[in-house]
Every structure is written in C-alpha cells, then in structure tokens.
Design goal:
Blueprint lengths: L11 H11 L17 H13 L3 E8 L2 E8 L7 E7 L16 E3 L2 E3 L7 H16 L7 E7 L8 H9 L5 E5 L7 E4 L1 E10 L14 H21 L11 E9 L9 E10 L5 H14 L5 E4 L8 E2 L5 H9 L6 E3 L5 H6 L4 E4 L13 E3 H18 L1
Parallel strand pairs: 3-6, 3-7, 7-15, 8-14
Antiparallel strand pairs: 1-2, 2-6, 4-5, 5-16, 8-13, 9-11, 9-12, 10-11
C-alpha cells in the first residue's frame, strides 16, 4: 500500500501537498490497477485532517467506489450565504511507472503527479480552511463548503452529482492551475464519433468493394478544412475566441489485402457559451450533405462538457478578483467542473496555483510561491466574506 512519504517541508502547505502526491488517485478510466486508482485515499487523508480540526465531514457516493468529500465550516446561526471550494481529487497517467508518486521539493518547485492538476489546488484550498479553523474564526453568517470532487478527468461524475444533490451557493471557486488568474469563462467540449460503412472485398479486386477508409478520408478533409475554416470565421467570444474542431483519432480496416468495411474517427469540438451538442450535430450533418458524404454518429460521452460564462461584475467574483490582485478576469480554452455547478444555479469561477502547461506532463510541478500565494489569497477572501 502507498503511504504519505516523509519529505522535508518548509511549510505546512508544502507538507500537505507532498502527502497528497504520495497518495495515488489515478482515474480508473485510464488505468486498471486498484493499488493506484480511485480518490478514496486522498479523501480519507483530508477527512482525517478535517475531523481533527473540528470540521464537519461527509462522504457523497457518486458511483460504485467513487465519492466526493464534503467538508463544512458552518456559522453559529442559520447561514445567509454559502461558498463552495471545489477542486478535484483524481489525476491522470500511470504515476508509479515514472516515479511520480515520490514528491520532490527542488529549486522552489514541488514535483509529482497531481502537483499542478489539481492537488496543488486541493492543498491551497484545504490549507486555507484549516488555517481559518485553527485561528478560531467562526463565520458570522457564511457557510464554507470544501468539495473534493471525483472523476473530473473523465466524465465529471463528481461535479454533476453534487450539482444535482448538493444545493446552490452564492459562489463556487473551482480549483485548476490558472496561474492565480480568476477565470470566469471557458469553452465546452463535445466528443463525437463518426462511422463510415463500406463493403469488404479482396485486396486483389478492390472494385468489388467500397473502401470505408477512403470515404472517411474525405470526411476528415471536410472537417479539418471546410468546417474548421467556417468556425474560424465566426464572431469571437470576448474572452474565449472562436470554436474549434479537431479529429483526434482514426481507426479502420483489418489488414492490407482486405478492402475495409468500416472506419471511425473521434472528433473534439470546443464550444462557446450558447452552443449545444445538438447544434454541433446539425452543423456536421449539414457539412456531410454538402459534400455528399455519409457517416453515422456515436456518442463518446454520456453528456457534453458545457462551457462557462460567469458575470465578472458579480460582487463575490469582483471581491475574489481584488483579493487575487487582478484588475480583470480571463477565459481559458479547457473545460472544468465549474460548468456543471454553474448550470445548476451556482455562479462559478476557476482559480488555482500552477500553469496548465504543466498538467498531465511526465515531470509535473508547481512553484511553492504560487501554492502559498493561492492559499493566502483564498484565506484573505474567506475572512472578508465570513
């Protein structure tokens, strides 16, 4: 079994992050190894710390063997306001194969799987909550809820479940590596699979068959050239730019001497606020008709990852932006757990230490200064709002 490693740490938050990195929490969608997968080890460690700090702890089952961790700091009376702190606990990759479960503090950086995405945010958010509890501060009329979310890296099961069952808040701050910028808009993502169907024949007599790979090649060109150009010509969103399309995978045929009877491609279509999966399907269907091409649709996700567009002028958003020392908010191209929470009625933003360029890399890291500053910003914001 994996246990938190003993690592020299210059501050409690660094020790916390090192302990979290040493606890494997790879999303089971990417690896079939019970010693490395699941969020439960991280959740149990945080739950133990929360209990010792006198905070209320709840486990919320979102799927078999998968849970959200919910930690509450409640006011003495009935809360007038609620704030969600919502980073995710799962990571990607096979960390044990590259030593990524061995946290290292080198040159002002903490290295290890999840250091940036998003155990750095988990540590910053949770340490802020622990510091508030240790200071003896009791919120006057604001309930602060830390939500360690499951499954962000695959189907967003944790945030979708909490959005349905956890009620609403006045603001949700979702943890991702934003470089300490406050993100109020991000693109959504629709994953679709297209399938072309041909007719098998012997490779020596290809005229007796229909080559599904050749048909799909024409579809790929139509998507990557005509459709991509059309998307690039649209009016840009002020913080997100324009929508995009990418053909990320293709598979077809069995062997060189057989005319392939089927071929599939996987499409990533980044959406802007206001766009829907149904609209994307209609656009691609119209494109195929114009080119006299045929293909069937399959879903690669049970639901699309929705875009986010939160009003930066909302009072709590503006207060967090000031606490972060920023004059304005920004938009990003990736999707997050903020969108399901926002769709359920909670205004949501994204904020955290680290750079998204480090996420999912073989040598993932976050700067100690960024980690400590993120926690200080959140502590200051929470004190102001409590």
């Amino acid at each position: 079994m994996y246990r938190p490693l003993t690592v020299p740490a210059p501050a409690p938050i660094v020790r916390l992050l090192c302990d979290l990195i040493a606890l494997p929490s790879v999303n089971p969608a990417f690896l079939q190894d019970p010693e490395l997968t699941g969020e439960h080890r991280v959740a149990a460690h945080l739950a133990d710390l929360a209990t010792k700090a006198g905070l209320d702890v709840e486990r919320q089952t979102v799927a078999p063997g998968r849970e959200n961790l919910v930690v509450r700091m409640a006011p003495a009376g009935r809360p007038r306001r609620r704030l969600f702190l919502a980073p995710h606990l799962d990571t990607v990759g096979e960390p044990a194969l590259s030593g990524q479960l061995r946290p290292r503090v080198v040159g002002g950086r903490i290295h290890g799987r999840g250091a940036c995405d998003t155990k750095g945010s988990v540590a910053a958010y949770f340490q802020a909550l622990l510091d508030l509890a240790a200071s003896g501060l009791r919120p006057r009329d604001t309930e602060i809820v830390f939500i360690g979310l499951a499954d962000e890296e695959n189907m967003q099961l944790g945030s979708r479940h909490f959005a349905r069952t956890g009620g609403r808040a006045d603001l949700a701050i979702v943890g991702e590596p934003t470089g300490l910028e406050v993100v109020t808009a991000h693109k959504g993502d629709v994953w679709l699979q297209l399938r072309s169907v041909g007719r098998a024949a012997h490779g020596a007599t290809p005229h007796l068959g229909r080559n599904a790979v050749a048909d799909m090649a024409r579809i790929v060109l139509a998507l990557e050239e005509d459709y991509a150009k059309e998307l690039a010509s649209r009016k840009p969103h002020p913080r997100l730019g324009r929508p995009t399309v990418n053909v990320g995978r293709i598979a077809g045929g069995r062997q060189p001497n057989i005319v392939p009877a089927d071929c599939v491609i996987a499409i990533d279509r980044r959406t802007l606020p206001g766009e829907t999966e149904a609209g994307v399907r209609r656009e691609i269907t119209a494109l195929l008709r114009r080119h006299r091409l045929k293909a069937g649709f399959d879903n690669l996700r049970t639901a699309p990852c929705e875009p986010l567009d939160t009003d930066p002028e909302l009072p709590l958003v503006a207060a967090l932006t000031r606490a972060a020392g920023r004059r304005k908010t920004i938009g990003v191209h990736y999707f997050t757990d903020a969108a399901p929470l926002s769709a359920a009625g909670t205004p949501a933003v994204v904020f955290g230490p680290g750079d998204i360029a480090q996420a999912h890399t073989e040598d993932e890291w976050v700067e100690v200064k960024s980690l400590e500053k993120a926690s200080a910003i959140l502590t200051r914001f929470l004190r102001e709002q409590a």
